[in-house]
Each structure stands twice: as structure tokens, then as C-alpha cells.
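Justification of resources, computational component.

The compute hours requested in this renewal are based largely on the per-chain cost of generating structure records like the one below. Each record pairs the submitted sequence with a full C-alpha cell output. That output is archived, and it is also reused by downstream analysis tasks.
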Amino acid sequence: MVISIVITLLIVILIIISRIIHNRGDYKDGGGTKIGGTERISFFSPANDKAGFRGEKIVNYHLRPLLRKDEYLLVNLLVPVKNGHYIEIDCIMISRKGIFCIETKKWVGHISGNDEDEYWIQRYDDPCKRDKQHRNPVKQNLMHCSVLKRVIKNDYNIECAVIFAKLEDGTYINSNYTYSVREFKAYYRNQEDNKLSIDEIKRLCQELSCYIATPEQLKEHRKNANNRYIDM
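The structure output for this chain reads:
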């Protein structure tokens, strides 16, 4: 009896240690430097805002451990475009592997769409829920990438990634830029580690940090945006 209890405790301890090591990510220093992302969602916020916020939190939790301490994850940016409006970028990763402009989604159900469609479709198993149309997140994020290239005024390649925080069914997604969290982590780890120098990483972080929005700015932006078309 005593031996079985000891063995059970040892197994539990090993599982806990394994999860701690896994959650620390790829680097022993505990992950990169996260800047921004101080937004808070109240109980009375719309359901879409809550889902988006939770999706970003989940993805950021998985992205930061991929980075070294001197690499950066910038969260919740408002970047100006030519017509005086702003675009909202969920997060930007800046590391030795390059610049990654990331759009996060937490759509549940069955998702279908490709890189050329104007709209993607979200279908539910619940017959009481209607299908939803969403603007193509890939086109949206490719536009974000174009704006970023103009802002940094350099010929850096900017990787476009649309990451689904908890993708239930992506069987009918046909995209070169869309990932589950696990898929993106595998893709990122396979990239070469020499695309940006430490000096370039620091300079780009300083250049883009000024666009990190406060919770108040985000709230005002979302209120005014109303899905309008942004002319770059």
C-alpha cells in the first residue's frame, strides 16, 4: 500500500516537472520580452470582444516562450494608414528569425475559406445558431503587413500569420498563411535564426513600440471602425 502511494506521488511529481519544462518554451531564460497587451475586458463587454481577447491571451501565452529574452512580442498596436485612420494589429514578433505580423482568431465551429475569398464562413453544430460570414483574415493581415513595411521604411520581409487559438475544425481552410497554435510553433522553429541582428531587433522594437495602444485607445478605435474599408 505504502509503495503504491509513493509510486503514484513520484508519477505526479514527474508530470508536474514535465509540464513546467514544456511551458517554459524553447529557451531557458523563460521567453522573450512582451510589450503591451494591458487591455482588460469587463463582464459587460460584447461576446465578440471577449472571444477576441481570450484568443489573443491564449496565443500570446504560447508565442512568448518561443523567443529569447532579447527578442520581442509587441501586442495591441494601432498603426496609422494613409487616409488618417488606423489599423489594429494583434501582435508582432521580432526575433532573429524575422518579423512576424500576427492576426489571432478564436472562432469556434467549422471554418471554411481560402486566401482569395472575400469572406470566410463559420458554421456551428448547434442548429439554433446561424452561420456567420467574416471578412477574410488573411487579406486583412496581408494589408497589415503592407502597412508595416511602409512604416519601418526598409525592405525587411514581414511574415503573415493568422493563428487560430483553438481551431476545432479547419478541414475546409485552404490557406498558405493560416495556422493552429501547434502548426505555427513548428513553422517558427524551422525558420533560420540569422535573419535579424540584435541591433536590428532593438531598433525595430523601439520604432514600433510607439504604436502600442492603451486600453482606452483600443476601445475608441473599435467603436469608430465599424468594419469600414481602409484605403491604404
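Residues 2-23 form the longest helix (22 residues). The radius of gyration is 20 Å.
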